[in-house]
Amino acid sequence: MPALTRLASRAIPLVVDDIDTDQIIPARFLKVTDRTGLGRHAFSDWRYATDGTPKPDFPLNAPGAAARHILVGGRNFGCGSSREHAPWALADFGIRAVVASSFADIFRNNALKNGLVPVQLAPDDHAALVARLAAAPDAEVTVDVEACTIAVDGTAWPFPLAPFARRCLLEGVDQLGYLLAAEDEITRFEASHGTAVATSA
Fold first, then answer.
1. What is the CATH number of domain 6-193?
2. 138-152: b or e for each residue (b if 16 or more CB lie within 10 Å)?
């Protein structure tokens, strides 16, 4: 996944509380193990009419939405089942950061494993950001992974990010990629401490 130090983009507002993973990606689309193409099914039941026609008033269908990489949700984003397809679908649509006042823990962990930044703001900060975007929908939002801040029009708010997750985002690796990058160092440590695992012939 690409490294992410700083993301500047206009935002997609979807300020609804308790958006669950079945709303993000309905269960009927979970038959695949490849994330490519899942973006067209993101929020499918909200995004399309029963005949498959895009609903013009849904935020992801707005003109220019595909070029926006930050989604602003409400409280308890990503609740429900643990499906990893939810961050897959968002990322395939082009979302790189989701802003909310709280996240379901499993969604947060799955998001970070897939290079998607969960920007959790204190409720007052979240309300201030939402108000700012309501007044200026085309304002540029900047998510700074290194500084752990999100900013609009010169006002910045902090958000928490675990040090290891932050490092993986900055380096563009997942947990496995991080370990593989340290393979030589691990081998040297094992050799110097007599902990190398013997393999059978």
1. 3.20.19.10
2. eeebbbbbeeeebbb
